[in-house]
Specification:
With 268 residues, the protein is mostly helical. The chain has helices at residues 10-28, 39-56, 59-63, 65-72, 81-97, 112-122, 127-176, 183-238, 242-250, 255-264. It is elongated, with a radius of gyration of 26 Å.
Length: 268
């Protein structure tokens, strides 16, 4: 389906813009960009946050972070005119030729939830059972996706704390060497210690927390699509008129998608 194709690069653009703003501002203040890189601070941030995430969740969930990030960068598969138009077309066919006439079209339905619903309709499954099964699928989907978003929300909470730990660790070393260090070296050591805090706060607010928010927004959009499918399946099962089904579908769509459906049901 069109809604699910492509790549949402807003995560990359946002991250580059945020980091770029910090670096440019630092340079405008006369800072040296090389001073922003401290390997020890990076190791403390990544290692500490990784350990906290594994303890909070599981190794499996931790290793799934790249996949979750990939999901965040994929466009939301929300309610769209193409799917709504397909629902209207099937309702028209079912009303004219009967529910069994949809049997040959089931395998052509791309959306798995919609395909499952229509398959049960064709097989004569009781409407109450169809409702329970589809709502269970929606509930499980929502639970799994919220758990994935929670991984990044937790990451956003741990990162600043690990940054503070990195800073404290650096300051402990600075204070331990206070008696034998010259002022120039002392100032450099203190500045380096605070880089860990900068890393932690920056990674949390430019990456982890925004990704979590983005994932939660995707859940809402995709759940709305599922609810539209649920409404469509029941309408088809009841043999409602295509005009009424179309009006129901329009209520789930954004303005641009509504216009597309009105023009031709989302067909290419």
């Amino acid at each position: 389906m069109k809604a699910g194709k492509g790549l949402d690069i807003s995560v990359v653009i946002g991250l580059v813009t945020g980091v770029g703003g910090i670096v440019v501002g630092y340079l405008l203040e006369g800072g040296n960009p090389a001073a922003l890189w401290t390997l020890s601070a990076f190791v403390i941030i990544v290692g500490g946050t990784s350990g906290a995430l594994i303890t909070s969740f599981s190794i499996k969930e931790y290793t799934s972070i790249p996949k979750i990030l990939g999901d965040a960068m994929a466009p939301a598969n929300g309610a769209n005119a193409e799917l709504a138009g397909q629902i209207v077309d099937l309702s028209d066919k079912a009303r004219k030729e009967g529910l069994l006439s949809l049997d040959d079209m089931v395998d052509d339905i791309e959306d798995p939830l919609f395909r499952k619903g229509i398959r049960m309709v064709v097989d004569g499954v009781d409407p109450d059972e169809i409702e329970k099964l589809l709502e269970t699928d929606i509930s499980i989907y929502e639970h799994v996706k919220k758990e994935e978003a929670e991984v990044f929300a937790a990451m956003g909470g741990y990162l600043p704390t690990m940054g503070i730990i990195g800073t404290v660790t650096g300051l402990v070393l600075v204070l331990g060497d206070l008696g034998g260090a010259d002022m120039a070296r002392l100032g450099h050591s203190i500045a380096s210690a605070f880089i860990a805090t900068l890393y932690g706060i920056s990674f949390a607010n430019l990456f982890a927390l925004p990704v979590s928010v983005k994932l939660k927004a995707k859940i809402k959009k995709e759940k709305l699509r599922m609810e539209m499918i649920l409404t469509g399946v029941f309408a088809i099962h009841k043999g409602e008129s295509p005009m009424l089904v179309k009006e129901k579908m329009l209520s789930y769509l954004e303005e641009e998608e509504q216009k597309t459906l009105e023009k031709g049901g989302g067909e290419e």
